[in-house]
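Data card: per-record layout.
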Amino acid sequence: MATQPTPAPVIVIRKKKSGHGGHHGGAWKVAYADFVTAMMALFIVLWLLSSDEKVRKAVGGYFQDPTGKGNLMGTTMAGAGEGLLLSQDDMSKLKERLEQAMKELPQFEQMKQNVEVTVTNEGLRIELLEKEGGLFFESGNAKPTEKGADLIRMLGEQLQSIPNKLLVEGHTDAKPYSSDLGYTNWELSADRANSARLLLEESGVPAARIAQIRGFADQKLRNIKDPVDPANRRVSVLVQYREPQEVTPPAGGSRQQATKSAAH
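The structure for this 264-residue chain is written out next.
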């Protein structure tokens, strides 16, 4: 009987999975992206720390109001407040220029204690504070004195080239105005503000630049503790911060994109 051939052995090949394939996954990309983001944040912080106060306020304002629709007196990019962000330094320089110009007036030594120039949240405020008997305006009258007229004309000469709008305010003390014709502190404060306006325009300020004439009578006393203090009688010229410019959005673009472009 013939011998049957022995069947060939079955060889099973098992492929062992290597751990090297993990390098081709996506986990490292996530870690790398986190690293790059952290480095970018670090560089931004270092840049802000080395920047001046104006840049830091501008960046902070953008994150508080990314749309740029905040009002001008706040801390936003487009809006003085803080057009205050964009023009406060300019107002400080204007303040210095006015103070220097006032020092050149022949009679300024006699009235320097009665002139106050301050940068406020509305703009640059120039206040002419009266003395007993009248310094800038005749007592009980809307007619400027010679000193008052010279000072207001000098202000007009310095402000005529500034594009900002001007407000002119008149104030009185709380002493009632004695008149049989119905003339009161309201009329007196408004008339003094209007007299100041006329002098500003005579000295070169365009009429269109004067936005408002305000007469407050005794409703906004400077010295509340002494309502009849002569310093409550005053005329103020306010140089307003510039209004944010209206930007027309490009065709197909959003208003938000246009506002951001204007901010840059």
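Known properties of this structure: The longest strand covers residues 123-129. The two ends are 103 Å apart (CA to CA).

See the next section for split statistics.
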